[in-house]
Amino acid sequence: IILVGEVRDRETAEISVNAALTGHLLLSTFHANDAATAIPRLLDMGVEPFLLASTLEVIIAQRLTRRICEGCRQSVSMSSEELPKLHPTISRYFSGKSFNLYKGKGCNTCGKTGYRGRIALFEIIRITPEMEDLILRNPPASEIWKLARKQGSRSLFEDGLDKVKAGITTLEELFRVANPP
After folding, report:
1. CB-hemisphere CA count at 13 Å for 136?
2. How far is it, in rounded angstroms, from Cα 129 to Cα 54?
3. What pTM was computed for the model?
4. CB 32 within 8 Å of CB 41
5. pLDDT per residue as tens, the chain (181 positions)
6. Which residues pair with 102 in a beta bridge?
7. Distance of alpha carbon 155 from its chain centroid, rounded?
């Protein structure tokens, strides 16, 4: 098992792919806006599409968002009419006329912020045989995401929305770290 701190340049990308080709499990970090963008960026660094397709197993994008303080978390009732004020497209993710979201009131435990700790939002793309075929064609991120979505991948925003509905974080925090698809 090899851990590469970060793939930033062509040389590191090539060494990483060569290590993966020899049967090593290679884990690394990579700066990209989302999981689908990682593939075109690696291809732009000079990694051959056939090598990338045969060595890549999974891409996980992650964003950290603040967690609502459990000491002062409270339910906030919202109506469907209030949602568009938060974001023009957010209404499509909620059903019904009213629903409960959560926020932290602020207490001594959280320093009156309403937040304590962080939680990760994830976006995962598994490299299936269909995805390997797509990588061979040097696709844009939009095509990669379209196939990933068809195969069950969910966006950072959708994972965050589940955490908002579960009372783990707030809509404001979600909009701060992720954009709606």
Report:
1. 8
2. 9
3. 0.86
4. yes
5. 999 989 999 999 999 999 999 989 999 999 988 999 999 999 999 999 999 999 999 999 999 999 999 999 999 988 878 877 777 777 778 877 778 889 999 999 999 999 999 999 999 999 999 999 999 999 999 999 999 999 999 999 999 999 999 999 999 999 999 988 7
6. 75
7. 6
Which residues have CB under 8 Å from 95's CB, separation 6+? none
- Whether the Cβ atoms of residue 124 and residue 36 lie closer than 8 Å to each other: no
**95 φ/ψ sector (left φ>0, alpha ψ -120 to 50, else beta):** beta
Strands 115-126, 58-68: pairing is antiparallel
Q: Can you read off the two tokens belonging to residue 83?
A: 């949602």
